[in-house]
Structures are given as structure tokens and as C-alpha cells.
């Protein structure tokens, strides 16, 4: 499963392909997922040199710098303790890099306030479409809009559903405090400028009893 990037040759290691079976994002427990892709806790790939699957409680992970996907990866999967790391490949985008032990991220390092949450199929499709179109894998759109006066109970999915009525939505982020509570505003990125102009027409639309403020964000 997917847990939503540098190349260096390691003489004796075949690149280990990371699995695509189910993506994850990092989010506060019991809160809506934030759009940060992750790859699941299944085995690393199919070559004879591929390491064993991570333990169920794996809290360390690596990151693909091209498509911004994250993969749970236990240090034991990087070879014997004396080895500094190994070469891995991203199954989502055509990227391969040398993953060193000291460059693994620690989920527990975020104060224990975060967990892995499944990444949606639409995000896999977005990355695939970007690659096929020759765009950067992490491209989400060109028209970013500020959305204010949100109810503290409004979640990302509600905004995405609303803005999808006028065009293609590339990204939705409700800005949150460290404890996961909404700050009452967020940002929606529409894929094209035309979709962005249409989305500005949603200014004043009522959601959860509050009239949304939709406008281009202030520069700088």
C-alpha cells in the first residue's frame, strides 16, 4: 500500500521497487486527512535483492521528491546494520534514489500527533495524468484561491465537492492548528485558470450556515 525523490549508484544492490497497493497521507488521528501522500506497509518489491516487508508497527518512512509520495520503510529493509542504505525506486513516478538510514523520517518525531491515512485513488490518477502530459508529477493546478469564513466543522471533502461543480479541483487544504482543529480558512487550487475564474463565482455560497469568502490570495 502507499503510505501522497536523488540517484546514487550502490555497487551490489538492485533498486528495490516500493509498492503501489495503497497510498497514505499523514494526518492527526481521527481528523480529516491532509493531502500528503504515503505508501503502505506491504513488502518492498520483487527483485531478489528486495528487503523483507516492514513490521506492522513501522513508524519510519521515506519520501519521493518527485511526486511527493511517502513510503513506510523500516531501517532493517535497507540491508544489514553495517550498510548505510540502498537504492529504491518509486512505483508512482519514474524516480529512483539512494535512501540512506540517516535520511529516514520518523512518524513519532511529529509529537505522536499524526497517523497514516489512505491516499485516494484520484491522487494516484492525478500523478499518472501529470506524467503522461509531461508535467511535474506533483502538479496540482495553476489557480490557487483563498477560501475564508469556514465553519470549524467543514472538512476538505465538502469544499472539494462544492468546487468540483465548476471545474477540476487539483488540491484542497483547510489550514489547521497543531491539534488538528480548523483555523476557519483554507486554499483550493483549480487545475486551469478558467476553472479558477469560475470558482471565484462561488464567493458568498453558504456552507454549513456560513457564507464563504472566495478570492485570489494576497501575493507575498
Describe the protein in words.
By secondary structure, the protein is α+β, with helices and mostly antiparallel strands. The chain contains three helices and 15 strands. Mean pLDDT is 74; it is low at 1-15, 19-23 and 25-54. The chain starts with 15 loop residues before the first strand and ends in a 5-residue tail after the last strand. The strands form five sheets. The chain has a four-stranded antiparallel β-sheet with strand order 11-12-10-15. A hairpin with a 5-residue loop joins strand 11 (169-176) and strand 12 (182-190). It has helices spanning 121-132, 156-163, 193-200, and strands at 16-17, 23-27, 37-39, 60-63, 70-72, 85-89, 96-100, 105-106, 115-118, 143-148, 169-176, 182-190, 206-207, 210-211, 213-215.
Through-space gap between termini: 38 Å
Oligomer: single chain
Mean pLDDT: 74
The strand line-up of the biggest sheet is: 11-12-10-15
Strand content: 25-35%
Instruction: Report the strand count.
Output: 15
What is the percent of helical residues?
10-25%
Structural class: alpha+beta
Tell me the series of helices and strands, N- to C-terminal. Answer: EEEEEEEEEHEHEEHEEE
Q: What is the global morphology? A: elongated
* Uncertain stretches: 1-15, 19-23, 25-54
Radius of gyration over C-alpha positions, nearest whole angstrom: 19 Å
Largest sheet: 4 strands, antiparallel
Give the structure's gist in a few sentences.
The protein is α+β, with helices and mostly antiparallel strands and 220 residues long. It has three helices and 15 strands.
